Amino acid sequence: xxxxxxxxNLGEILDRTVQLYRRNFWLFVGTGALPVLAALxxxxxxxxxxxxxxxxxxxxxxxxxxxxxxxxxxxxxVFLLVYFAAFTFSIAALTEATxxxxxxxxxxxxxxxxxxxxxFWTYFWLLLLQIGVVGIAPIGVATALIRQLVYLMTRPGxxxxxxxxxxxxxFLVGTAAIGAVVWLALSLxxxxxxxxxxxxxxxxxxxxxxxxSQRTRGRIFVLYLxxxxxxxxxxxxxxxxxxxxxxxxxxxxxxxxxxxxxxxVAGFLYIVVGLGAQIALAPVPWIALVxxxxxxxxRKEGYDIEWMMQQxxxxxxxxxxxxxxxxxxxxxxxxxxxxSEVFPQIPPPDNVGER
Length: 355
Hints:
By secondary structure, the chain is mainly alpha-helical. The protein has helices at about 10-25, 25-30, 35-50, 65-100, 110-115, 120-155, 160-185, 190-200, 200-210, 215-250, 255-280, 285-300, 305-310, 315-335, 340. Helix 6 packs across helix 9 (about 200-210) and helix 8 (about 190-200) packs across helix 9 (about 200-210). The radius of gyration is 27 Å and the shape is globular. The protein starts with 9 loop residues before the first helix and ends in a 13-residue tail after the last helix. Residues about 325-355 have low confidence and may be disordered.
């Protein structure tokens, strides 16, 4: 890792992400598959409950239907909590695995998951805070404003010009809310990396990630665009395979055994390719975010100096971190000028006055 600790551009970070992913493919895929496997295991009993007579379309006054409906609602909430816990566990383990393999260490799937367990509730609370800050807060404010604007639009006696102006304000508020969600998501994207590497609390990780993300949010945005584009391309490939099998089934003719088999194959291909794409692409952004985190610390705090000090055994990790942070703050507060580089200021000796 020490030979790579230098400021990297976006292309170098993406290249390093691909290298780490390719060299540790099964580690990342096995760790990132946890939420998808949890969702599949949860979907089967949920589908069975939904198919029970009386839940979906039963009589509203039937006590048995009411009990089954309540059971379905409670089960859905429990399933969502379990899925969110699996997602938290997975991304924390992915971050732990990325930190380890980037340092040249070997790690197994079990070791990665075990390393994330002691601080699981901190990671869980961190994601809840991120959802609140990134999603609930701006969307809640925008919803309240839009409701008031719509109320003013629907009042009696409002002319067309005023209604158009209020409608345009609704559009602006909605657009601003979407922009705020994207900007906040980019600002807090490195929160998990901060929480895992520096062992901070959830709120401290959010504040620290906000500061580290300055001047790199655009690069993180490009990363997310690339991941979305890859996901769409793989999904399109799955759709084309399924459409090809469906067209072959239609060509053979409905009702025949071959057509039925081709229809089943089409659905199977679509599901398998879609799930495979989710599992394969899930680790990519979390690997890259750890590299962005390291890059920002090198740029802002002299993290490369800290790492060299630790490797040389000059100071313990905590002292090295404080020293590097102090150096980064000093260099940011007092930038070097050409004069200071050529003629450094040397303090006079203590006995200069006596002479």
